[in-house]
Amino acid sequence: MTSENKTTDLDISTLTEEQAKAELAALAVKLADADSAYHTEDAPVISDAEYDSLKRRNAAIEERFPTLKRADSPSDQVGAAVAAGFGKITHSVAMLSLANAFSDEDVQEFDTSVRKYLGLPSQAPLTFTAEPKIDGLSLSLRYEGGTLIQAATRGDGAVGENVTANALTIADIPQQLDGAPEVLEVRGEVYMSHADFAALNLRQEERGGKSFANPRNAAAGSMRQLDAEITRSRPLRFFAYAWGSVSAPLGQTQWEAIEKLGSLGFSINPLTRRCQSPAEMIEHYADIEAQRAALGYDIDGVVYKVDDLSLQERLGFRSTTPRWAIAHKFPAELAWTTLEGIDIQVGRTGALSPVARLAPVTVGGVVVSNATLHNEDYIKGLDSKGQEIRGGKDIRVGDLVQVYRAGDVIPKVADVDISNRPAGAEPFDFPQVCPECGSDAVREPGDAVRRCTGGLICPAQAVEKLKHFVSRAAFDIDGLGAKQVEQFYGDGWIAEPADIFTLQDRFGSGVQQLKNREGWGDKSATALFAAIDDKRKIPLSRLLFGLGIRHVGEAASNMIALHYGTWDALAKGVDEARDRTGPAWDDLIGIDGMGTVMAGSLVGAFAQEAERASIDRLIEQLDVQEAKRADTTGSPVAGKTVVFTGTLEKMTRAEAKARAERLGAKVSGSVSAKTDLLVAGPGAGSKAKKAAELGIETLDEDGWLELIAGL
């Protein structure tokens, strides 16, 4: 796997824009690999603590540099693609991930952010629940008429694997419910106790089978067996902690709803508590952490949720996480090992990334053999400003290094013990040429990374762009992953995305047909071609994300797709905005959340002759679907462009925007001739004046609330 760039330990407040770009690129690759390893392969390569730390750093960089948010931003990802061999189930309510807290201050900030969104003063009562975060496999169970009819894994949050037959073998999962709503989707975690895990591994060893690395892997691997009898033989358990679709409320609070699940026969965690303040939440976190070793099953933190379900409804969701919940994670672990070598990898932006090759060591229950070394300055013991880090100690091959797993796919090197440095160890000589194509590797002033100047002649850059195109948040083609992309690119079968969709015409028959290649057969080749054909019909947002345009992340792709609706409208609008002036440009930058940097990147990509020709060849192969909007039947603002300005007093600006979008409105950050409605609170200034000049309908906050009442 090629890493795009280098992550750093630099203070985010000191990062330059170029450094931020480089690090976001590295984080995107690392976290995507980690998601795939954890969710799809059941073989994590980093600890949860490491993963969470990197994801948090990614979000913090994006917060400081919002226009740099990438198309493949980890902030917009949930889970990973469904593995081959299982049927797919689309979740009626998305199974989202949780935002993370790592300190007491983060917990306090969670309480503050909830209050700010809801407009609650600091002294107003606000109750939370706190429960252990089980380290297992997320599962959704759908009951109709009290009967379990289907079970699905989280998958990518929208689509999961159909594991109904396997769920029916788990004793903790009732097959019939008495007194449940007509429709009830119960969510929870499949896990394995420490004692059962040890006994399972002993049986595996006695039979000459493969041992599992940890209980989470064992539980996930057991649940995702194609043969349900294998699952039946494994000691799996289930804790219920949430719900999806439900035809009747389970209660008015989180606490009442969880108690209802317990009364229906589900195991609920006895350590769940109600807390009245961040101080109580942190105290319960400490109590659970103290009991962690004696629980008999793995947990990796504590989850806090706003207790009042009506407040949860108001708070709603971000793109991948609820605003009303957060996971307070336990600290990372450390280990010492030997640095056996330093490899240089090249990403799709041409960045040269140093990776430490380590003597394998177990950190937090996972065996690691690689770690990021960030950049050449980090190896030298310097930060981006030339100041010493680690006391100025450089890193050399043969050194004893301290490794920690705090949130990224490839762990980090925290320190080096030079007292054990072998005699003759030489300072590392960072390459001045690209190891992939031999082109000069240049480090521009102010840039944290050294980049290959080879461009399209550099195979590493080309192949990484293709890997991004087939990534799970983009086209997500079954059977066409990073390994296959490398193989086909290396053999000259594909050079750009459009080539994927002509692969069958070129290599589906004749002497050189795919099924005759090593590692392929008639069945696998047919399946791949079918999977490729299946993705010819593609949502507009996924297509835009798959193009890999700088600064245009998955959330931005969704936002842009919803604004334009169709590919033709998008292409026309972006083409007309090429000069970065006039109505089309104003319309583009008027999209709420769109900045001039992102807009300029989008316009620039479409304006480049070679890139546009490649895009046009791709479009010829596709049936691009119109962006889907929520069912807004009866909404008075569906399809209208709404702008909020001034101070809102009965709801926060964020809540108003979220409600408008749920009702099918486009929320813009600026007033233009395309604006349909301005909602102006006290203090409205230039936007209100411009709306009056353009004759745009204007409402105060009470008028807005009256307009959407009951919706």
Give the class-level CATH name of the largest domain.
Alpha Beta
Number of helices: 25
The CATH topology of the largest domain corresponds to: D-amino Acid Aminotransferase, Chain A, domain 1
What is the spatial order of strands in the main beta sheet? 2-11-10-3-9
Separation of the first and last Cα atoms? 48 Å
Architecture of the largest domain in CATH? 2-Layer Sandwich
* Approximate strand percentage: 15-25%
The CATH superfamily of the largest domain turns out to be: DNA ligase/mRNA capping enzyme
Which overall shape is indicated by the principal axes computed on the Cα atoms? globular
| Strand count | 24
Helix/strand/pairing class, anyone?
alpha+beta
Rg calculated over all Cα atoms: 26 Å
**What characterizes the major β-sheet?**
5 strands, mixed
Percent in helix: 25-40%
Give the uncertain stretches in residue-range form: 1-5, 79-84
Mean pLDDT, to the nearest integer, reads 86
What structural keywords apply?
DNA polymerase, domain 1; five-stranded mixed beta sheet; 5 domains; OB fold (Dihydrolipoamide Acetyltransferase, E2P); alpha+beta; single chain; D-amino Acid Aminotransferase, Chain A, domain 1; 711 residues
Q: Strands, helices and their partners?
A:
Layout: H1 17-40, H2 48-64, E1 88-90, E2 99-101, H3 104-118, E3 128-134, E4 137-144, E5 147-153, E6 159-161, H4 164-167, E7 183-191, H5 194-206, H6 215-223, H7 228-232, E8 237-246, H8 254-263, E9 273-275, H9 278-291, E10 299-306, H10 309-315, E11 325-329, E12 333-346, E13 352-363, E14 366-372, H11 376-380, E15 400-405, E16 412-417, E17 441-442, E18 451-452, H12 459-469, H13 482-490, H14 497-500, H15 503-507, H16 522-534, E19 537-539, H17 540-546, H18 554-564, H19 567-576, H20 582-589, H21 596-607, H22 609-619, E20 623-625, E21 641-645, H23 653-662, E22 666-668, E23 677-680, H24 686-694, E24 697-699, H25 701-707
Parallel strand pairs: 2-11, 19-20, 21-22, 21-23, 23-24
Antiparallel strand pairs: 1-6, 3-9, 3-10, 4-5, 4-7, 7-8, 10-11, 12-13, 12-15, 13-14, 15-16, 17-18
